[in-house]
Specification:
By secondary structure, this protein is of the alpha/beta class. It has a domain at 89-148 and 165-249 and 256-284: Rossmann fold. Helix content is 32%, strand content 23%. It is built from seven helices and nine strands, in the order H-E-E-E-E-H-E-E-H-H-E-H-E-H-E-H. Strands 5-8-7-6-9 form a five-stranded mixed beta barrel. Helix 1 crosses helix 2 (97-110), helix 2 packs across helix 6 and helix 4 crosses helix 7. Bound molecules: hypoxanthine. Hypoxanthine binds at residues 120-122, 202-203, 219-221, 244-245, 255, 260.
């Protein structure tokens, strides 16, 4: 039998929901947003109803990474009630996969319909440049193939099936909406496959050539576990990568976290335009 932090029961999850309900009252978030490295400034755009420091929430996986503020912001953005995670926890920080997926479980029990996940990613596709946005159309669950799946353990039957389908992990209608918003705003929006690795070391040139061959367009250290938990519970998903650096396919350049955070500053205004448009059009998608 698995116990927390390797596995969270419905009771564990609902205990967190109770704590949050004390702060937000009857506020009902419709969408959850997870903001990736260097993208946390987006949360400042919401008209906040409540801001909850992550460390005050029992069992919550608090991010230890610079660029992840560690707050939950509940509020209105483009007239939609949202719950924003400013800072996510990653497997490489020492958290279990169950902990990495826990915030999405809490979002589901709070009643969200849709999860919008964002991340900073390295470009494997040679046509992508730092500062570009990529709509995630599918993912390569390389950590999961290695055995690290957030759904490991007893299935939470109240939330979803033992063997959830992943044939359309990223919602097609929401992808269409994101493309339309980008077109109307004159924003370049690539589409592609996001590959998730465990990190925290960046890839070797050989890793990156492998990723290119198997069909990855971008690579990062997050997102996929959260998307799997979301889809298990029937939550719709929209995923956007902010490209922070080019893949170092020939070993001629180095990749740093500072570079990732600096690219975030270029990406944030574009991502904000895109997400505001998606939220405006959401009720029709
Ligand atoms: N590799 C993995 N994760 C990343 C990268 C990268 O190049 N850039 C931002 N996150």
């Amino acid at each position: 039998m698995l116990h927390k932090p390797d596995f969270f029961t419905l009771e564990d999850i609902d205990a967190i929901v109770q704590v949050l309900r004390q702060q937000i009252g009857t506020f009902q978030p419709r969408l959850g947003l997870i903001l990736g490295s260097g993208l946390g400034a987006l949360a400042d755009e919401a008209e906040a109803v409540a801001v909850v420091p992550a460390h005050e929430i029992p069992d919550w996986p608090v991010s230890t990474v610079p660029g992840h503020a560690g707050r939950l912001v509940f509020g209105m953005l483009e007239a939609q009630p949202v719950m924003i995670l400013q800072g996510r926890a990653h497997y490489y920080e020492g958290y279990t996969m169950a902990q990495v997926g826990l915030p999405v479980r809490v979002m589901q029990r709070l009643g969200i319909e849709t999860l919008i996940v964002t991340n900073a990613a390295g470009a494997v596709n040679p046509d992508f440049n730092p500062g570009d946005l990529m709509l995630i159309t599918d993912h390569l669950n390389l950590i999961g193939m290695g055995g690290l799946n957030p759904l490991r353990g007893p299935n939470l039957d109240a939330l979803g099936p033992r063997f959830p389908d992943m044939s359309q992990a990223y919602d097609r209608a929401l992808q269409g909406l994101a493309r339309q918003v980008a077109r109307e705003a004159g924003l370049l929006l690539h589409s592609g496959v996001y590959a998730s690795l465990a990190g925290p070391s960046f890839e070797t040139p050989a890793d990156l050539r492998f990723l290119r061959v198997v069909g990855a367009d971008a690579v990062g250290m997050s997102t996929v576990p959260e998307v799997i938990v979301a889809r298990h519970g029937g939550t719709r998903v929209l995923g956007i990568s902010g490209i922070s650096n080019k893949a170092n396919l020939d070993g001629s350049t180095v990749t740093t976290h500072e570079e990732v955070l600096a690219a975030g500053q270029v990406i944030v205004p574009k991502l904000l335009t895109l997400l505001r448009g998606v939220l405006r059009g959401y009720s029709q998608a």
